[in-house]
Amino acid sequence: FFFFFFFFKQKTAYEISACLVGSEMCIRDRSSGLDKMLQHERLEDIGRMYGLFAQDSECKKLLLNSLVQCVKREGEELMKASEQTEKGSSGKFVDALIAMKEKYNKVWSDSCKKDKEFELPFKQTFDSFLNVNNSASKALAVYCDEIMREKVRHLDDRELDDLLDKIILVFRHIQSKDMFDEFYAYYLSRRLLMKKCMSDDAERLMISKLRAECGNQYTIKLETMMKDINNSQEILHIFHSTHRSASCINKLEVRVLTQGNWPIESKALACNLPIELNDLRSEFTDFYVGRHSGRVLNWKLNLGEAELRARVGRGYEFVTTTFQAVVLMLFNDYEELTLKDIIQKTRIPVGELKKNLTVLLIFKVLTNMEGNPASKEIRESDKFRVNEGFASKFNRVRLPLMSDKPGAGKTEQLQRLESTVEEDRGMLLDATIAKIMKVRKKMEHNELIADVIKMTKMRFAAEPPAIKQRIESLIEKEILERSKQDRRIYLYKA
Length: 494
Hints:
By secondary structure, the chain is mainly α. Helices cover 61% and strands 7% of the residues. The chain is built from 18 helices and nine strands. The protein has helices spanning 2-28, 34-39, 43-53, 57-84, 90-111, 116-130, 135-149, 157-171, 177-193, 200-214, 216-242, 275-291, 322-330, 339-346, 350-362, 408-440, 445-456, 464-476; strands at residues 305-310, 316-321, 337-338, 366-368, 383-386, 396-398, 442-444, 480-482, 489-492. The protein has a three-stranded mixed sheet with strand order 1-2-6. Strands 3-5-4 form a three-stranded antiparallel sheet. A hairpin with a 5-residue loop joins strand 1 and strand 2 (316-321). The chain starts with a helix and ends with a strand. 23% of the residues are buried.
């Protein structure tokens, strides 16, 4: 009896081992294995494999581990390829990411019959390769910008809704949601200020999906930006209907933005405006302050644009920065000016003035009478004239600022955004720790770390060393203190 029982157990173990070996060979077969099935999206074959392997727990675990490894390998290859390609390839990267996500969603739902044991490992694997760094969150923000600038005009309402839902599927895996938020807000601000929004409804739809995913607080800045533009249009309509005296007043466009909600340079650079422009500014300021008592307008002239009609050549219309327009309008009264003259008359900061003058020289709107090439440093003694022989095949000529071209200027701006996110994370950690301790009064170190991670996970994945550093900072500021009996226990002191 005992011999038979022992033999039966040995036979059963042998059969299980043989089953596992056979299953592994089936999965790894190069011509018809799991990799080939996934490559050609043979969902029915994967479903048959799942149905067979699910009958034994060990075989089922083998299939799960193999699928997870396929997801991990494909994801890592995708991330590696995105780092090696050009920076402008965010669209291809996110398209591939969405396609990959959809494929494995079908594998889970159709082939694996929505098996709960498979759901979490799939999610965790996507989380692991997408959050190695911040590149996925930034690429997703760029992808959204491309859609709102161009693709949205070719999509009907249903197609747009489906595409945004696919973006949200990827967005759910991103832990650095604060990085996405900052970059999305930056690109949204450019679309709004440069009139590149193809559809306000599409913008609001995307914001509503982000709000549904992360809560009202996450999208408050984006909603304020949209509201500012709508309010500015209403204010301008009233202004134009009540001020018709000046011939060019109906061409004035002003956007009144809520300070602190727009990811644009906070430093406002002033200059002496020509009398025509200064009168317009004064008239709008008086109108706005008269309607909104207590508010102050801080004019950011360095961010503005102007349209000038020039009687040079066959006659052209120039789209310039405000500073370029101020410089060009000087030549209505003077035939020739030195750099020193322009500085004294405009009060434009020297660095900004040289950048704007360089563009005017490159496009041959102005001529340097000293003969210095536009690429060389402009000297204080250089003399400038309007190029009467200016010629272009376009009637309307846009003169971009140097920093608006692909290169250093934009890169610096994006680097500042990343720095802003890091600073905001520090402040959020400080506020979260103080908020928790104010309520709890006394907490053990690991318990506090766990609560902070839980409360900040909708913005980013806080690391314990970073939280510990913020705790030490709050102790130095005498907001917290350590217990004298146990140094791993913190007490609220403020």
